[in-house]
Amino acid sequence: MQGLVLIKAVPKMGHLSRSANFNDAKESLMREAFLMSQFKHPNVVKFHGICYDVPTISIVMEQCTGGSLDAHLRQWECKITVGERILYGLETAKGMRYLQEKELIHRDLATRNCLISKYGIIKISDFGLSQLATDHIDNLTKQRVTNVSILFSHF
User: In what residue span(s) does the Protein kinase domain sit (predicted)?
Assistant: First the structure.
């Protein structure tokens, strides 16, 4: 691993670290780290590893020094050419196509979650709300089965 990295962490919260909210946040970050570890594509933020230092858990990932696409568009809106805008859209689409091929549903694609690398390349990030399509189908099936069970229980 060379260069700068970004660390995303669940902060230490003292005695609150055993609370349900903290445990949910840790579980969510672990899940996000697992998902990120599955993907390697030029338009997806690179996962480097995870650091688990009780009670803090951190994801170590590629740092995109250009910041978010959202901030970039706001700062330079009048100076960004049509060609650059098309390139941003194309790179985002390439990343999303790759994630679709890997059967990932991002569920939070927005310019704030598209980062710009030091080379100006758009990288999709923030997989906290993401779900594998197979998990999504399983959840829908469970939900339907539960709803049907409830419906029949009233007879």
Answer: 1-155
Q: What is the pLDDT of residues 82-105, one digit of tens each?
A: 999 999 999 999 999 999 999 999
Catalytic: which of 53, 108, 126, 135? 108
User: Which residue range is the domain that position 31 belongs to?
Assistant: 5-153
Q: Domain total for the chain?
A: 1
Tokens, residue 8 = 């995303």
Pairing of strands 104-105, 114-116: unpaired
Cα(87)–Cα(122) distance, rounded to whole angstroms? 9
CATH number of 19's domain: 1.10.510.10
Q: What is the pTM of this model?
A: 0.75
User: In angstroms, what CA-CA distances link 76 with 73, 80, 116, 132?
Assistant: 5, 6, 14, 35
Could you tell me the sign of the dihedral formed by the alpha carbons of 129, 124, 3, 41, in that order? Answer: positive
Note if 108 is an active site residue. Answer: yes
User: Residue type at 86?
Assistant: I
In the 8-state DSSP scheme, what is residue 19? S
The structure tokens 């962490």 sit at 9
